[in-house]
Structure formats: C-alpha cells, structure tokens
Amino acid sequence: MAIAKAERLMNLALCLLGTRRPLSKRELRESIEAYLEAGSDDSFNRMFERDKDDLRELGLVIETVENLDGDTGYLARRDSNRLPPITLDAEEAAALGLAAKVWQQARLAGAASGALQKLRAAGMPEAEDAYEVHSALEPRIPVHEAAFEPLMLACRDRRPVTFDYRKANSARAEQRQVEPWTLECWRGHWYLAGWDRERGAERVFRLSRITGKVRSRAGAFSAEVPDVVTVRETVESWAGETATRTARIRLRAGAGYPLRSRATAVRDRGDGWDELEIPYGHGLDAWLVEFGPDVVVEEPADLRADVVDRLRAVAKD
Fold this sequence. Notes:
Helices cover 39% and strands 23% of the residues. Helix 5 runs antiparallel to helix 6.
C-alpha cells in the first residue's frame, strides 16, 4: 500500500508540474489510474485532498486557480518549485564526502553515494580526500544490530513498534511497546530513546539487547516527542555519560579495560586487584554486572546493593 500511495503521489506531482494551465479535479481523475479506480466521487475527493496536502507538506507549491466559469483548477509552476543553484566550496564538498563515508549500513551508504553523484553532476567540486591520501584511518559508525534499520525507519516515520528486550539483570526477554524517538551511538553501542507505553515513561534501550524482530504498529504516538537536544541528553544519561557521583571499585588485574579508561584514579593493591575511582551516572550497575567476578563495588553502598541485586536476579533465572 505504501508503494501504491508513493506512485499515486508521484503521478499527481508530474501532472501538476507538466501542465501549462490549471487542471480540474475531473481532468486529474481521468489522467491518473489510481483515481479512476476510486469507488465513488466521495472516495476520490478524500483521496485527492489527502494527496494534495501530502505533496504540499513535502514542499511542492500547488496553486489553486478559479476560472471564469467558477471551476477550480490546480497546477504547480516549475519556476515556483525549482531549487536554487547549489554552490559549495572545496571545504564544504570535503565535509560532505567525509560524511558519506561514515555509514557502513547498506541502505544509508547507497543513499549517501547517490546524493553525492547528483551533487557532482550539478557542479560540486571534487575535493581531495585527506583520509585516503594521507591516512590509513577511515571514519565509521558500526551498525551490527538487525534492529537498527527497522527502528531507524520507525523513528523517521513516527510509527510505534514492539520488540522483545532482555534487560541486563535478566536472562529472559520481555515484550516492549515503544514510541521510538531517536537512535544514538555512544561508546560503540547504539541506543533507542522513546516512550514506553506500558510503563508510561521515557526509556532508553540498548539495541544489542533487542531479541527477535522489530514489528511496526499502526496508530499515532500518544506522547509528545521531545526536541533533539533533550532526547540526546536522555540517552547520554541512561547510558552513564552524565557523571553525578564517584564510585570506588576493586578490579582484577589485567581485566576491565573499558572501566580503566574511565577511571580518574587507579591504585595497585598488590593482591592481584586494583582499586579504581570512576565518575558515573545512571546505568553503571548494569555495566558492572557485565564484568562478572572481575569487579567488586566498595562504595557507595547503594551502587553495591544494585549490582548484587542484578547478579542475584541473573543467578535465579
């Protein structure tokens, strides 16, 4: 159905752009097959009005003209719908080329490559690629999770989703009903921020803990979507990026290098363990559980209790 609607919108846009005079609803209905198949005049009128509104929302300037007989016609003048010339200097072209190489995910890579080809055909300067000429390094955003693409599309289209999610302290997955807001990459892991319908609150989900397929659901969002800045701060906070306290932990020597990279102080205890001080926010308890017996929390007491509770929950499952 989505493909049929896209084809119908494209045909309507071509008709409106290709005419030199306003076309009436009757003429448009006779020119577009999907409109001819409409069961009644009321069905056609509703379909046409929705399509016209969708095209205007996409940016097409559609004029409504009334002739001498009082009939209403529609057209989209080419001069009103022509983009201004795109002019980029060498540095801007280099930035676009670099951004196009960031994505490894196939769908995004194809779209980025196609956009660059169109810009170059329009006269965008060919910029020297510093990453190819002078360095073996190349920027990448890894996307290994199967849930990434359906969630990216659901965020774009504002569609609710359901998926099975395994929390860090549980061996079994639970179904979640989520209104997806945005995806954020933090420390090599992807997170989804959105509204959890069952819990009635915003939540953040790590994509690597989503099991099975992500399924789209019909209907509109029930909660207001925050602006981008607010959502990003939520993702960083739930992922532990926003440090509000300091924890003191014991870490087995030679283990836990991600924890060591965050430590503000490291002391060799001389018994095969090191003592670390780590600034942290929300979510450190779930992260510490992943290191199993190589980590022991010394303080604060509430963090220690949270880690113990998570370990017991995993052992029970």
